[in-house]
Design brief:
It contains two helices and twelve strands. The protein is mostly beta strands and 223 residues long. The chain has two domains: 37 residues; 179 residues, Jelly Rolls (Sandwich), CATH 2.60.120.430.
Length: 223
């Protein structure tokens, strides 16, 4: 971007202008360059690199299921969007059951706090969405992508597996809605997504059975 701005200054200098015109264009150019350089870029919050361990005490991911549903997670080194691996989720979601596959902070599995930045170090006001890559099979399975806010309240964004192969799923903050079926007992429930977001989780919705890969959970800048 700096090189581009310098090239633009060179092009302006090739054309004869009055001092006032040149000063005005220079101000606009500098302002545009500063704005472009300062504009936030998308960055990966969790790339699922490193060990993927599903264990209550020694785990690196907080995952589990209940009421008849089941889930296992693993590192998929053959099928990944970037890096060395993606997160593979094998699920069997039955009627009345539940599943969670979570990463972040203030979770029961303390080793799941493997984001690239701590929540308090993220300039949340500069971003308008979370995104992730989903490798689906076009199964039609519906999956919830949940986040837990600063007060422990859970918010939900619904996703459908409608594509074979990798697909980026963008989840704008203003399209998350409070979970009505369940909230943690300690949550400050006010219906407002309060930042910083502390964790996220994936939950395939019943009735469905299969496997998906997810990779590169990122923050997307405001448009």
């Amino acid at each position: 971007m700096i090189k581009l701005c310098r090239n633009a200054r060179k092009r302006i200098s090739r054309f004869p202008m009055k001092a006032g015109q040149l000063f005005f264009l220079s101000v606009l150019l500098v302002a545009g360059c500063v704005q472009a350089q300062d504009a936030p870029k998308a960055f990966i919050l969790d790339d699922f690199e490193g060990p993927i361990v599903m264990d209550p005490k020694e785990g690196t991911i907080d995952a589990g299921a209940g009421s008849g549903s089941s889930v296992t997670v693993s590192a998929d080194k053959e099928n990944k969007k970037s890096g060395e691996q993606s997160l593979k989720i094998d699920y069997d979601a039955v009627s009345g059951g539940y599943i969670w596959v979570a990463r972040g902070f203030n979770l029961d599995v303390k080793g799941a706090d493997r984001w690239t930045k701590k929540p308090q170090d993220v300039p949340w006001s500069s971003y308008g969405a979370l995104s992730f890559y989903l490798y689906g099979t076009a199964s039609g399975m519906r999956m919830a992508f949940d986040v837990k806010d600063a007060g422990g309240e859970m918010f939900r964004f619904m996703v459908t597996d409608d594509t074979k192969g990798w697909k980026q799923v963008v989840c704008p903050f203003d399209q998350f809605f409070p979970r009505g079926d369940w909230q943690p007992q300690t949550a400050e429930v006010n219906g407002t997504l309060d930042f910083p977001i502390m964790s996220f989780q994936f939950e395939p919705i019943a009735i469905a059975k299969g496997a998906i890969d997810v990779d590169d959970v990122s923050l997307e800048p405001l448009n």
